[in-house]
């Protein structure tokens, strides 16, 4: 990205006009704001950053604490609120801008209640599969841009270019690339005919085994982690409909992303294909779905 382009992108954020809060998550310390840039809807996600101990001289930690207010004390316990020294090396905030934001972005990042649904094979064919077709093509142009090296090419850390069993790995934008205990990578397959685990059959076993083998062998060469510190899993339903595998540090807790029902270990997917040629095509899948999801009413009504 050229310096001129970078400056233009920074100025975009400075044009943001706030209207309302879409969601506030005190656990992940993320707030999502709704507003406008140049009369087009924009979403801004503000996230507190993790401590980067490589940029802090721990022997001089009192120097980083600029202001201190005592909240309470009891016996040996003392609680304070502090202002911590900030700099370009110690940023306090990570910001994500989605602009122009579409309706599906607004739904995804809005606060919402959730319900569990049991998606039968029949429900998948009648309700979910037709919806998936509307979410392919232009809806995931950004994925094709990555696979074609049109965008984010400099972030790719591993790639296998085989048309059937190939994939590439790059850091998830949620990861700061500093804190190894929150390592978060994503493996995107090169094949464009696989939207989710529902499409997987015995034919695709080589692809999944290649992803598992290469990731466990090569990622520890790129980052200071051992292969047994990596958890590989897929989501169902996924956040976007082009098959991808999440690669995270085993100590990294991701909230909704690792919730029961949605996260399925890659080892379990591989074992399923080995024992059942049809894979997940004939399996009922239970998961939580938010009330803002386009299929919320159809799926919850069909499940009742």
UniProtKB/TrEMBL annotation:
SUPFAM superfamilies listed in its UniProt record: HIT-like, mRNA decapping enzyme DcpS N-terminal domain
Subcellular location: Nucleus
Keyword Hydrolase: yes
GO cellular component terms, semicolon-separated: nucleus; P-body
InterPro entries on file: DcpS/DCS2, HIT-like_sf, Scavenger_mRNA_decap_enz_N
Keywords: Hydrolase, Nucleus
First and last residue of the signal peptide: none
GO biological process assignments: deadenylation-dependent decapping of nuclear-transcribed mRNA
EC number assigned by the record: 3.6.1.59
Pfam families, A to Z: DcpS (PF05652), DcpS_C (PF11969)
EC class name: hydrolase
The protein, known as: m7GpppX diphosphatase
Species classification: Eukaryota, Fungi, Dikarya, Ascomycota, Taphrinomycotina
